[in-house]
């Protein structure tokens, strides 16, 4: 049976309990054994983390120690998946640039705050995550993120929707969901999820998140089946 660890905490405004329980149900329905914790001490045992197929952060802001970041980075690099949503993953641990490097992006603003109605445009390409999904509308925060150009963008949204300082610039499409790799590990992110019920506004939103979680959780199995080794991804430069 595949195993997933969801660690939740940080700012309560993002409803980490409700969101983590939603993600836990998605994974359990797919046959995962899910552990939900509010104690970052569960990130201290790297050998226990190596027994996981997926790590799901639901922790807005806060701090992550050097040692815990190293453990997560190591096991994801070895093939464990990493997947999350909204501020629980890409507004977590703002002072940790290695976290931002691994996850592929960082929230910087949501002009207009909550209650902005906008369209999520699905990108159809090489990823099975978006197969059959259509564009949909959401009323929530519209996340403006700084993102890694190496990400494979699965969905995007057009800015600006409201007048703010960025309006002086040209219109841009900001990613809403993406995939990337960290060594052998699969990484998935979706910027939806300011509140748990955002995923109920459109069936496509909930399905996009569900598929992303399951996609990320396949990395370790594939690495094992193909006999892949993380060593070629590591240089002589020691980051830690």
Helix content estimate: 25-40%
Category by helix and strand content? alpha/beta
Q: Give the CATH level 1 class of the domain at 3-108 and 176-233.
A: Alpha Beta
CATH superfamily of the domain at 3-108 and 176-233: Class I glutamine amidotransferase (GATase) domain
- Poorly predicted ranges (pLDDT <50, ≥5 residues)? none
Nearest-integer average pLDDT: 96
Order the strands across the largest sheet as they lie in space: 2-1-3-4-11-10-9-6-7
How many strand units?
11
The value of Rg in angstroms is: 17 Å
The N- and C-terminal alpha carbons lie at a distance of 33 Å
CATH topology label of the domain at 3-108 and 176-233:
Rossmann fold
**Which CATH architecture of the domain at 3-108 and 176-233?**
3-Layer(aba) Sandwich
Q: What does the oligomeric state look like here?
A: single chain
Helix count? 7
Characterize the largest beta sheet: strand count, sense, and whether it forms a barrel: 9 strands, mixed
Return the string of H and E elements.
EHEHEHEHHEEEEEEEHH
Q: Which descriptor suits the 3D outline?
A: globular
Strand fraction: 25-35%
């Amino acid at each position: 049976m595949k195993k997933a660890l969801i660690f939740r905490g940080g700012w309560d405004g993002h409803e980490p309990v409700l969101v983590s329980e939603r993600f836990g149900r998605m994974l359990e329905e797919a046959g995962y054994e899910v552990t939900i914790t509010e104690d970052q001490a569960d990130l201290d045992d790297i050998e226990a983390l190596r027994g996981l197929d997926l790590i799901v952060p639901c922790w807005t802001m806060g701090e992550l120690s050097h040692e815990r970041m190293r453990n997560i980075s190591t096991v994801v690099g070895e093939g464990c998946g990493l997947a999350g949503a909204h501020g629980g993953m890409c507004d977590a641990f703002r002072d940790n640039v290695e976290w931002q490097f691994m996850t592929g992006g960082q929230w910087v603003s949501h002009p207009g705050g909550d209650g902005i109605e906008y369209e999520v445009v699905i990108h159809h390409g090489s990823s099975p995550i978006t197969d059959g999904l259509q564009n949909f509308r959401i009323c929530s925060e519209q996340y403006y993120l700084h993102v890694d150009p190496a990400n494979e963008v699965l969905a995007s949204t057009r800015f600006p929707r409201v007048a703010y300082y960025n309006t002086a610039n040209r219109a841009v499409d900001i990613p809403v969901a993406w995939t990337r790799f960290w060594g052998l590990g699969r990484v998935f992110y979706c910027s939806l999820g300011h509140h748990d019920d955002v995923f109920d506004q459109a069936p496509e939103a909930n399905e996009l998140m569900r598929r992303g979680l399951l996609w990320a959780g396949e990395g370790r199995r594939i690495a094992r089946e193909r006999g892949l080794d993380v060593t070629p991804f590591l240089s002589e430069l020691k980051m830690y």
